[in-house]
Amino acid sequence: MLKETNLDGVKSVARMLLMTPVHKTPYSPAVVQHPFTSCGIASLNKGGKFQLLDITAKEEDLKIWQEFMKSKIEGAENVWGIYAFINKPYGLTFLKFAEPHLSKDEFSKLLADAWVRSENPNDDPNFTKRDLIAMFKRTDKQALMTEEDYKRWQDLEKSITVYRGVTPHNEKNIRALSWTLDAEKAEWFAMRFGENGKVYQAEIDKKDVYAYFGGRGESEVIVEPKGLQDITLVEEIEQIINQSM
Q: Can you name the residues that pair with 164 across neighbouring β-strands?
């Protein structure tokens, strides 16, 4: 990676993503999919005058919005000034294309932010698990984590117990990167949205834990899926304990 971020290179990536098609959804124009917006109705403020644009229906409106966003990209003084405009679900995609132009420090910090902002990064269709693991391996761990999280990661035991809560939506993706050290938080993930999910428990060696994110109270650990051992449904563990009593 570069010693210093090439801002012009990052801007070229942002301009490329800006020009990708706006994908409509059943809820368009209110909801769309695009690297720079989740809404097809754009409100622009030019010289104190507000202008409403429908970028899903009018080609002229789309061009006006694109030119407006280009000016924001060109005016950015650093990579974070560009990243701030990226639609949350596209954070990792932006990072994927911008990486060749980023310093290791900024790549690491951006990866941490894009990961925690994404609703379900483990199921991002633009990345395989190998892709995501490779990204974490390329980071500067001290830049990737806060000082407190880095110390927590360093102090992990040689072998640790981790938990993962899944819903019917993602129950097939058990060997994912995201697990937690908190059994109650795993249960929360399993039951959120009012769904009857499941909680799994596993063991993993510290060497296979790539990061710890304590923000949002999730006690999340990023793990090597192949390093997970003795994956067991928590209900089955409880049954075994009860039978032995």
A: 200
